[in-house]
Amino acid sequence: MERFSIAIHGGAGTILKSSMTPEKETAYKNALKIALDAGYEVLKNGQSAIEAVERAVVELENCPLFNAGRGSVFTSEGKHEMDASIMDGRDLNAGAVTMVSGVQNPITLARLVMEKSEHVFLAGAGAVEFAKKMNCTFQDEKWFHDDFRYQQWLDIKDTDSIQLDHSVKKVQKFGTVGAVALDMTGNLAAATSTGGMTNKKFGRVGDSPIIGAGTYANNATCAVSCTGSGEFFIRGVIAYDVSCLMEFKGLSLKQASFETIYKRLPKINGDGGLIAVDSQGNIAMPFNTEGMYRAFRKSDGSEEISIYK
Amino acid sequence: MERFSIAIHGGAGTILKSSMTPEKETAYKNALKIALDAGYEVLKNGQSAIEAVERAVVELENCPLFNAGRGSVFTSEGKHEMDASIMDGRDLNAGAVTMVSGVQNPITLARLVMEKSEHVFLAGAGAVEFAKKMNCTFQDEKWFHDDFRYQQWLDIKDTDSIQLDHSVKKVQKFGTVGAVALDMTGNLAAATSTGGMTNKKFGRVGDSPIIGAGTYANNATCAVSCTGSGEFFIRGVIAYDVSCLMEFKGLSLKQASFETIYKRLPKINGDGGLIAVDSQGNIAMPFNTEGMYRAFRKSDGSEEISIYK
What we know:
The structure is a homodimer.
Chain A: E1 5-13, H1 22-44, H2 49-62, E2 82-88, E3 93-100, H3 106-116, E4 121-123, H4 124-133, H5 141-144, H6 147-156, E5 173-174, E6 176-182, E7 188-194, E8 215-217, E9 222-228, H7 230-235, H8 238-249, H9 253-267, E10 272-278, E11 283-284, E12 291-298, E13 303-308
């Protein structure tokens, strides 16, 4: 049997063991396991990497613990604005959406943009109109409402502060989810989804919907999904950076992703992490923050579900 | 005196000599010269590359001949939606806007996002709100109205066709403008601006506002501004591709940009071109279409203003 593997993340940032309860930790790990299982099952059944990353991200989007889909944070107007992108390493096809409201699973919408539209990137009302045409599932504000997220927003809504997600320092956790996978036939895929930053203004777009920055996949190199201070991931073109270090400099997946996260990203003061898989099924999950919700499973039986360094 | 240089483009596509009148050709060349002069003057006065590319693109945006700023094409709703991005090779700082209406010079707004906001990328109403705060110059629809563009839109508004800009085949010209520059102190910068596609729908975002795809600048390698079928430039992460081929594979500016435009972009069926400058002031302007409105001038006195292959 050909090998296959999947990795997922639920965001990186200042996640300190001291500020976490055992119950909360278990809840996060269980949620990661559900998403991991869902994606892994797809691969085990011989289905495609693109199907696996979508399925895993849908689970993460449907879980209120993570800042994506249902768990999305509130913008400065008390609304939810979500972004997502997906890329197929087989043909470098890609789909992305930004500033989307009401759609239950932005990652599914991103895949529909990739497969059913002539475009790669749709934004705002136009993206929502396309979602309606495609019969995407919509949810009302109540479905997205989460008391914890709402309190986060109330805390800072009349200030100029933004926060990337809940944390001790309140600006040090990056709420994004993502998945990367290698399927049995050797195809790679990557997917990323986010609910943005609490109290964000001005229609800010981060790296999650940007192909090359937050998401990238190429069968010749690797599949990458990022989480971190989005502005720096855009300026560093971080996801594609890993791929280029492999393709043009001959680095391994581990060498390339470590070079990007531990050397090149800090050089421009960026922090965060990424998950990546190569065509051999190797996994790398580097991050330069206190923690990153992450998990992987390979067809050889190896597995990990972790939060801290 | 240290060398400096600047290159500009006004879009690539099917620009056939047979369908061009001598008057039109002169008008385009004059418009390119005005923008080239404006940017070159900035560099000659010892000012920065970022100032030079902004100044050159402002001239191109203010000229109704090019699909950017004043000359922007009509969307399917008969409106104008503009995108722009700018990047400073000195510190990899960047600014970008998408789906902006009413702002006279989107490139100036992109620079303000880079310099005066904590974000890199702002979209839609939020970007316009920021423009108002920054006291950007606004213009009413009449200012943007152009009979030729309007007729283009009337021709296809009740169809599902989109067109990238006017041309023989009507879908083969890519209306984008851009500039790249090296200043006396060795700093590189790139800027790109577009008015989108005639009759575009669904809030489609192309490569022009995407750092890494349409625009990239890094003092260590090069500054790049792209024009072409945006979806393919996003999927190929074309602007950063040129930089990576130089940084990781040791290619020259000419080798890297030719590799990207003549080999890697066609592999995914993309067409278009780019302008690029490196830290030695070398210029490359490859394109795989019939023509590209382009021009460059170097401090050594060399200069070119051309349209066809």
